[in-house]
Structure formats: structure tokens, C-alpha cells
Amino acid sequence: xxxxxxxxxxxGVVLLFWGMTDAAANNMKIYYSFxxxxxxxxxxxxxxxxxxxxxxxxxxxxxxxxxxRSRLPHPSEITTTLVGLAEKARKExxxxxxxxxxxxxxxxxxxxxxxxxxxxxxxxxxxILETELVFLEERHKKGRAIxxxxxxxAPAFGLIGTLIGLVAMLVSLDxxxxxxxxxAVALLTTLYGAVISNLVCLPIANKLKLRSSEEVLLxxxxxxGILSIQAGDNxxxxxxxxxxxxxxxxxEELERERxxxxxxIPLKRESESTR
Length: 275
Fold this sequence. Notes:
By secondary structure, this protein is mainly α.
């Protein structure tokens, strides 16, 4: 479970309700308007469905749940595994790597090693994996675009609700009892639209963008490592190549693990590449 997402949502909702309760002197009923919910929620959903296919919208919500629950492998796990495979290939040959594929859960990683074992030409191997990586990014962009679209539609429908409420209020100026409900719809739709956009949709889109960039980086590391293994590079050279992808703090961690463990750590976490 992604703790940052959960903490952010909980803190945002708690502080928002706290501020609303304090401002309304504990009368939270004034912030409820079924009409405003219908206008903003229904309008945002309808506009999103018009913009995308239904299966794309459903896939986007599944994508968010996957990103929320799953955790990408740590760079040290992938690097240590690749270095271990390089050592095995140098000692026993590339065909010996076939049995190692059973220890790898990441389908992208497993496929790359299998292509090496099958004797695929290095240029073709690189082309296959990079093509898969390109389309992985495209799938991620489509899922992220849905939340970005919802984030842009929600404030717009909040404004539409405001106009609807103002019209209702102006038409009923001669009846003071109807002015209040009209003004409530006018203001609450703007509030709902802003909250949905800035607390839910846009942050989710940013989180998916971050997760996508992290996964793409790990896939690039895997491609570089697999090509180095196929070329027969020295395991130490393979490690240095892969370390260049990461920040200094991660490089130091990799160095400590290499000194302390000196063994292969299998990948046991499923990557998001199956999305």
C-alpha cells in the first residue's frame, strides 16, 4: 500500500472538514447540497465518458488501485539480480540463465532473459524491449489523461453549477425563501468542483505520472543490464553501468549491499508492466 497517497488523502480530508466545521460553527449541513453533487459529479463523469471509451475509464480506475497497492522493486534488487545473472553467464554460459527465469516474477525482465537464452540478435533484442517500453508509457499516459481530464472538468462544472444557482436566485428575488437555496447551489458547486479537482483527480494524475517514470527507469535499467549480459561484460562493469542510472544515495546503498551480501536477490514483486 502506498502510504504517501493514503496519508495525503486522510490529512487533506480531515483538515478540510476541520476548517469547514470551524467556519460553520459545527453545522456541517450547510455544506451539503444534493443538487450541487449531481451537477459536479454527474457532469464530470458524463464529460469524461464522452471524452473516452468506457473500457478506458474503467481501466484508469483499476490502474490507480494497482498503483496504490503495489510497490515497484527496489533498484538494489534489480541491480543485484542482474549482476548475479552476469556472473552466472560468465561462468556457465548464456544457456544457464534459462533456469534463473523461474526466479523472476517481472514479466518484462523474464522475457528479456528468455530472448537472450534464445540467441536473439542484440539489436533485435534491444528493439523488442524498447518497443514494449514505449507502448507501456503510452498505456500509462492514457490512464493518467483520464484523471487529468476529470481534474479539468470538475471546476468547469462547478462554474456551470454556480451559473445555475445564480439564475435560480435572480429569478426568485421577490421570494426571500428561495434566494438562500439558489445561493447555496451557486457556491457549493464551485467548492465541490475545486475539491474534486485539487484533492483527488489532479493529485492522482501526478502520482500515476511519478509511478510511471519510476517504472520506466527500472525497465531501462533492465534493458541495459540484459544487453550487457548478452555482450559478456564483466559483472563489475555491469554493476557500474547500472549504478549510473541512480542517484548517489542509491549507489551507496548498492555498494553496501554488494559488500555485505554478495549474492543474487530474486525479484519477488510483480511489476506494474502488466497494466
